[in-house]
């Protein structure tokens, strides 16, 4: 009998969900039309990106649960989101306010800490630091604000308290607090969940199979906990993002992003409880989801499948620029296959762009005598500019941008490597215009193909080497009391100062600063 009641409950929810999806619950925001269209998982089509505040974008990204090293699948997600943010910031010139959470308390963190016999917070701090180091090596820009769960427990408790007081959440037999999905009329608007997914959630504690934990009661002594009006325990996963994001952005967010695996149940539950808390039909205006990263055998890369490649291991074999290029070459929504072939293709594509810039410099210096058709080059730049603008306005279509740049590079290379007579007049302006266009376009995505600028990243290491070499030579001069050697060292110091590098001698040691 009890089983029949549960099955009827499942059918009831499924019928209601199906009804919802015949009329998607999404309201087009009021505000400023950006001219950009983005894919909307609620309406299942591209919709105009409208901002509630002109030229300002509020953006929340689900951060990592820090119980282990981040893998290449995480890198793919965060690099792709970084690329979109750079497009909005660098190309469309929007003012982005971004927030990322760090889940530093969770069942996985507790379990891993017990396994390694360390305190949970020590484990979380270790892997959070590793995550941010990985982001730095991948060229991912830092968010405007970072929100850690353990630093905002009281905020989360107050969020849950309001849901309980308004009868949208309840205390169950296991002393945990659950959100009452029945109070939300448009639950499952982000992803149509079938009966199979629903039946996985069958249980005997909750009012509904779809209800989810907001506050988890303490299971056993020794686990980390916080006091609350409902007893000792800790927050559920979904409530964390809602409370933290609401603290920064309030009752409405322009964009909420994450991997496609978060769309259900995490993002679905975030939207449901946040709409309930703020008494609004729509908390997030646009959900952006990146596709999975697959291995050669089309298997999703995940820690649960034990098939991951850490970001650190990947960067030992692949440059961060090549990996970023592979992400630019793939639609952000699509699944991406991580393979040696893909990385080689991405590296070669990037090298082709860099080599074209080098050829432009060689033409400028007179090393190449080429036959340049300036009208053709200017025409190609204008056409490329229009194509790239249209592509970026069309759901951030970066693969089309790369295709357009490749065509421009191919045409430019043909001209640059077509010999001309020695007395041919140089057409430098269109060549430099091409160079600027390629460099600036790649720069939008965080790709720095200009060799001079790339070399400047290693300037400190180069100056270190030169300073140490000068120091060794100078010490020989001091030991031998050789005035000529010391004079040469002083000359190097004086000339370095003209380049903006200040060298100070401290006895037999030297230091430098810019």
UniProtKB/TrEMBL annotation:
Keywords: Aminoacyl-tRNA synthetase, ATP-binding, Ligase, Metal-binding, Nucleotide-binding, Protein biosynthesis, Zinc
GO biological process, one term: cysteinyl-tRNA aminoacylation
Entry's EC annotation: 6.1.1.16
Reactions listed under catalytic activity: 2 L-cysteine = S-sulfanyl-L-cysteine + L-alanine; tRNA(Cys) + L-cysteine + ATP = L-cysteinyl-tRNA(Cys) + AMP + diphosphate; S-sulfanyl-L-cysteine + tRNA(Cys) + ATP = (S)-sulfanyl-L-cysteinyl-tRNA(Cys) + AMP + diphosphate; S-disulfanyl-L-cysteine + tRNA(Cys) + ATP = (S)-disulfanyl-L-cysteinyl-tRNA(Cys) + AMP + diphosphate
Transmembrane annotation, as ranges: none
GO cellular component: cytoplasm
MF GO annotations: ATP binding; cysteine-tRNA ligase activity; metal ion binding
Domain of life: Eukaryota
Keyword flag Repeat: no
Alphabetized NCBIfam families for the sequence: cysS
Entry-linked PANTHER family: CYSTEINE--TRNA LIGASE, MITOCHONDRIAL-RELATED, CYSTEINYL-TRNA SYNTHETASE
Entry similarity comment: Belongs to the class-I aminoacyl-tRNA synthetase family.
Protein name: cysteine--tRNA ligase
Organism: Psylliodes chrysocephalus
